[in-house]
Write a structure and sequence with these properties.
With about 1150 residues, the chain is α+β, with helices and mostly antiparallel strands. About 30% of the residues lie in helices and about 25% in strands. Among the domains are: about 160 residues, Jelly Rolls (Sandwich); about 80 residues, no CATH class; about 110 residues, Thiol:disulfide interchange protein DsbD, N-terminal domain (Immunoglobulin-like), CATH 2.60.40; about 140 residues, no CATH class. Strand 7 and strand 8 form a beta hairpin. The longest helix has about 90 residues.
Length: about 1150
């Protein structure tokens, strides 16, 4: 900055050089890497405000809302808007219509930012209501001092944006987010240019109307002139693939091409000896070489018709030969056999233009249209008096009005036909409407010169000498090639022609010649015609290349460091590149710093979803304020993107200039089954740095996933149906068991629950089940005592007092989110035990209260109520007597599955002995295990020696002990061998097989139903665990997923059949018990009736005996009276 207080200070510069990257000839806009082929596809469709002279500056075209529409001037530079006249809420807009066919749009403009723009102020560009650019302009260096404004530096900013666009209209708006008045924040605009990109045949990009684009003009290679074509001799092809050949050709399936079939009537040697003249005799038109009287090679512009062996014109090649008036490729369907044809019903046709239609047809817009009236005077006829009522003879009469006039009266035209406009009583065609009128040669809808049609007249390409109908007929000079009917050079053909300066047959930059133009070598300061004479400072000229000198202590732009030596291992390698795990400040001060690594780890597979973890070996940070999740690119190698979905979940995101332990969880869902394990590719497009600014060593990582667990909707529906059947069976068994409990059979419920719990633990076998089996296992939650009690008490949500922290498990236990903390699962058993104890205590207290009430003197007057109390007392006594030690053992055995599982899982989990809860958890674990061992020992010690009793009786007595040992074995294998897949399944199969043999040998005639239930249950468990070897990881590559699903149906059938058979047994028990109760009631009622009859008979007998006795007593009394009387008389 100039200091005005120092008069002697001054500044200047010398050796100023200005280098320009010129666009290839014929290009209106380009970037440095564009070739002539690339940039010629851009066409200028709109320009505004480009005048330099203020007096010539025109403001028409764009609409300015909430701003001054007059032109402004800033430091001799004219603009629209400007200082203090446009700013907050100002909208500059334009509506473009009738845009030619295109695929992209490019908008360029020069934007003048005036005065105090803030960080929150943005420039915005919208096209068709969609925000295309939202740019923060306050970050640009402001180097112009108050050219318009008065308080701040001003700056001209070149804005350019390219985006996809294909519709024929565009609504463009230029907006901003300014929040202050025009006097503080304003802007100006000039030099607006809008380009569109049209498709170019030969750029190897299929766009718009193109069917294909192979980048060449070779016929019979599948794609010619950007349209699908067959190989030579092919009769039927689809999408460049030949399906069959013409007669006389051989179809080669492995190459999908046609080979000419040669039928030799004579040997070739004989033919060559006899006939060495290849002239045709008799002559064949347009044939160049004949053999055996048949043409085998045609002249140029002709091809050999394989059916009639005649040479016919090459049509549909986009080249109009001397014999052709058109080419079917260009004018299809208006071209027939390379001759321009008119529409139907045309009598007089001249090069595709109909001049006269047949009778009863009228000519409109080059079409013959049928009319109702016959002999109507044709539009090309001028209506004289001879026409009269518009009915004319079959002649071409002269008319008064214009040929294309629709409404004419007295020689004055009032309205023209469509696509014509009325000017000076004449109908003038509209050039650019894509409709060729009679006074137009062509109409391609644009005003691009040298493209074959310009202002609706044929236009020849540059450098074309012979041109017909806008198509160049020249044979190109050496070095030129006919491309899109234009003789153009091809850079890289080793021939210098046209505007090419050089040719080195490569596209390598900075080798002296790039894109056939001279180019200075990289880091060259002075060069002429690609030859370098002087290199930049720090570089040495060797064989026309400026090579950096590594080890000179001067760091060039090709060096990452230069510590003055060429030794590796000190942070700067012998090639002056920073070595891994080193950071070099200012290019020479290198310090060892461990670089962070990208680490991708597989987590688990849950149903159709797989989960992976993205993390880093160190805490990392961002050096740019962006959302880092958007820079992570995830894909599955060699799999179509439509066949999978990947979701990223932030655990800890990368922060701007703040180091954190960044972590992301990736969820992958694959919508198909694959024969191999898919590979997940994780690519980071933005660099991360450690606290010491060390970058990541690797920004790409690969992770092998499991085979997808994909199931069709139909398979899921079947699995859900089986699951529903399982749930209904289990709930029905529970309901029947409750009824049996109310009817007095409580042991049946515990026995069933104990047997069915074994199914619920099959899901913990650490193999990859198909999704169908996973869906079925959801129903097993009804079987587990823990799940049953949790669903009843709803402790997980309501009992906040008993909530415990979650301790993560491992492998399959982690998949099912099993809490390894024993207190979490043990709380339900505690509550149930307290409930049973409370019920037992309340029963004892109620029995005591009833005893006191029986002896109460106040109730002695109510004998019926006392008898009711006595009946209830007897029931309570019976209930209390049933709750003995055997009942407690039975209850513990029913809950033993969950108790053993929780204890062993707790024992195998990690413990932090610095925390008191670890000791509490282990104490509960050991108490449970001691109780279980005590139960086993008590069963063993209470049995008579084997030699003194029957063998079957021995097995029957030992059954609870063996069952408890089996439970411990199964759960131990599940817990301790969770990471040993093969060993786990083999051991479980062995235990189940051994116990099945034991059950079969335990022949109990007293409990036959119990015996059959056990055989059904153990057989299904043994077959299920034995079949899980098909789910081993080592076999997944050899078995298809559909086969695994088929096996899962069989496995589900085994499990469901157990539930259905148990349900049948319980229904039978319920029916039998109800029947017995009914029979007992009937017997009791009959006994009561019989007792009443006996009582009545006995009462009758007593009455008769009493009457007899009274009669006898009466007679006796009378006899005694008479006897006394006789005695008295005798005295």
């Amino acid at each position: 900055m100039y200091d005005y207080l120092q008069i002697k200070e001054s500044w200047g510069f010398k050796n100023f050089k200005l280098f320009l990257y010129l666009c290839p000839p014929g290009c209106l806009v380009c970037i440095q890497s564009d070739s002539e082929f690339d940039c010629k596809s851009w066409v200028l469709t709109h320009t505004a405000y480009t005048e330099i002279d203020y007096t010539l500056f025109i403001t028409d075209g764009w609409t300015i809302s909430y701003g001054d529409v007059n032109k402004q001037q800033c430091f001799m530079i004219p603009t629209i808007c400007g200082n203090g006249v446009c700013g907050k809420d100002t909208v500059v807009s334009l509506n473009l219509i009738n845009i030619p066919t295109h695929s992209q749009m490019k908008i360029k403009l020069k934007y003048l930012k005036i005065d105090s723009w803030e960080v929150s102020d943005y420039f915005q560009l919208k096209v068709d209501g969609e925000l295309k650019l939202d740019q923060q302009l306050s970050l640009f260096d402001q180097y112009l001092y108050g050219i318009c404004g008065s308080t701040q530096k001003d700056v001209f900013i070149n804005i350019e944006i390219t985006f996809p666009h294909s519709i024929s209209s565009a609504r463009i708006k230029i907006l901003n987010t300014l929040d202050q008045g025009f006097s503080d924040e304003s802007f100006g605009i000039r030099d607006i240019q809008i380009f569109i990109k049209q498709s170019v045949c030969g750029d190897q990009v299929v766009e718009l109307q193109e069917e294909c684009d192979d980048g060449n003009l070779f016929p019979f290679d599948g794609c010619f002139n950007c349209m699908f074509s067959c190989v030579d001799g092919c009769s039927e092809c689809r999408d460049m693939i030949c399906l069959s050949c013409y007669e006389g050709w051989i179809y080669l399936e492995y190459e999908q091409i046609c080979e000419k079939e040669i039928i030799q009537e004579y040997s070739i040697i004989t033919i060559l000896e006899i006939q060495t003249q290849f002239d045709c005799f008799p002559p064949i038109d347009n044939c160049q070489v004949c053999l055996l009287g048949k043409c085998i090679l045609c002249q140029n512009d002709f091809f050999l018709n394989q059916f009639n062996s005649k040479c016919e014109q090459i049509c549909f090649d986009q080249i109009n030969s001397y014999y052709e008036l058109c080419d079917e490729y260009q004018l299809q369907p208006f071209c027939n056999r390379c001759q321009i044809k008119c529409n139907d019903h045309c009598l007089n046709c001249n090069q595709g233009i109909c001049q006269l239609c047949e009778n009863d047809f009228i000519l409109e817009n080059n079409y013959c249209i049928k009319i109702e009236k016959v002999n109507l005077c044709q539009p090309q006829c001028q209506c004289q008096n001879i026409c009269g009522n518009q009915i004319a003879l079959y002649t071409l009469e002269e008319c008064v009005c214009d040929l294309y006039c629709e409404k004419c009266q007295d020689g004055i035209c009032y309205q023209c036909n469509n696509y014509f406009k009325l000017l000076n009583n004449q109908c003038i065609s509209t050039c650019g409407d894509l409709i060729v009128q009679e006074n137009e040669d062509c109409d391609d809808g644009n005003n691009i010169e040298f493209d074959g049609c310009f202002y609706c007249q044929y236009s020849c390409p540059i450098e074309c000498i012979k041109c017909e109908q806008g198509i160049c007929q020249d044979k190109c000079l050496p070095g030129f090639y006919l491309i899109n009917n234009i003789c153009s050079t091809i850079c890289g053909d080793s021939i210098i022609a046209g505007n090419e300066q050089c040719e080195d047959n490569n596209i390598q930059e900075f080798d002296g010649c790039y894109l056939c133009q001279f180019q200075c070598p990289l880091n060259c300061e002075e060069c002429i015609n690609g030859i370098c004479f002087n290199c930049n400072f720090g570089f040495k000229l060797i064989e026309n290349k400026c090579n950096n000198v590594c080890g000179d202590g001067i760091m060039s732009n090709q060096e990452q460091c230069d510590d003055g030596n060429q030794e590796s291992g000190d942070g700067c390698s012998q090639t002056c590149q920073v070595e891994i795990d080193w950071i070099c400040n200012q290019g020479y001060d290198c310090t060892f710093v461990k670089y962070p690594n990208l680490k991708c780890e597989y987590m688990m597979q849950k149903n159709q979803y797989q989960y992976a973890q993205i993390k880093f070996s160190q805490a990392v940070q961002l050096l740019s304020d962006i959302n880092y999740q958007d820079t992570i690119e995830l894909s599955i190698i060699d799999l179509n993107q439509t066949l999978y979905a990947i979701t990223i979940k932030e655990i800890q995101s990368a922060q701007y200039q703040v180091t954190t332990d960044v972590e992301y969880i990736v969820q992958i869902e694959i919508f198909t089954n694959l024969p191999n394990h898919p590979i997940l590719e994780v690519k980071l497009t933005e660099q991360l740095f450690s606290a010491n600014l060390a970058p990541l060593v690797n920004m790409v990582d690969y992770l092998q996933l499991n085979q997808p667990n994909y199931t069709t909707d139909q398979q899921i529906y079947i699995a859900q149906t089986v699951q529903m059947i399982s749930k209904i069976s289990v709930k029905s068994i529970y309901a029947i068991s409750i009824i049996l409990i109310l009817l007095g059979n409580i042991l049946s419920f515990w026995g069933i629950l104990d047997a069915l719990q074994q199914q619920s633990y099959l899901k913990f076998i650490n193999v990859l089940y198909p999704q169908t089996l996973i869906i079925y296992f959801q129903s097993s939650e009804l079987i587990s005592v823990q799940s049953l009690l949790n669903s009843i008490t709803d402790l997980n949500k309501k009992a906040k007092l008993l909530q415990f922290p979650y301790l993560e498990s491992y492998e399959k236990f982690q998949y099912y989110e099993i809490n390894a903390d024993i207190t979490e699962g043990f709380r339900t058993e505690i509550l149930v035990s307290l409930t049973l104890l409370l019920g037992y205590i309340c029963s004892i207290l109620l029995e005591r209260v009833i005893s006191i009430l029986e002896l109460s003197s106040s109730l002695q007057g109510f004998p019926k109520f006392i008898r009711f109390l006595q009946r209830q007392q007897r029931k309570l006594n019976l209930y209390i007597r049933k709750i003995d030690i055997s009942f407690i053992k039975t209850t513990l055995l029913a809950c033993s599955w969950d108790l053993i599982f929780m204890s062993l899982l707790e024992l195998y989990s990690d413990h932090d002995f610095s925390y008191y809860r670890s000791y509490v958890r282990l104490s509960i674990t050991f108490v449970i295990l001691i109780i279980i061992i005590t139960l086993i020992l008590s069963q063993i010690s209470g049995v008579t020696p084997l030699k003194k009793q029957d063998l079957n009786q021995f097995w029957l007595q030992k059954q609870p002990v063996f069952l408890l040992i089996k439970k411990i074995s199964i759960i131990s294998i599940l817990v301790f061998y969770q990471r040993e897949q093969i060993l786990q399944t083999l051991l479980m199969t062995f235990v189940n097989t051994f116990y099945l043999i034991y059950i079969i040998n335990m022949k109990s005639t007293e409990e036959f139903q119990f015996y059959i239930k056990n055989i059904i249950m153990e057989t299904s468990l043994t077959l299920f665990t034995a079949s899980t070897f098909l789910n081993w990881d080592i076999l997944q590559r050899y078995l298809s997923y559909n086969f695994i699903i088929t096996i899962s149906w069989i496995q589900m059938f085994l499990l469901v059949s157990v539930l259905i058979s148990f349900l049948i047994f319980e229904l039978y028990n319920l029916f039998y018990l109800i029947k017995r109760k009914i029979n007992k009631l009937i017997e009791k009622r009959m006994s009561k009736i019989k007792s009443n009859e006996q009582k009545q008979s006995h009462k009758t007998n007593n009455q008769i005996q009493k009457a007899n006795l009274e009669f006898q007593q009466t007679i006796f009394q009378r006899v005694t009276f008479l006897k006394d009387k006789q005695i008295q008389i005798q005295k």
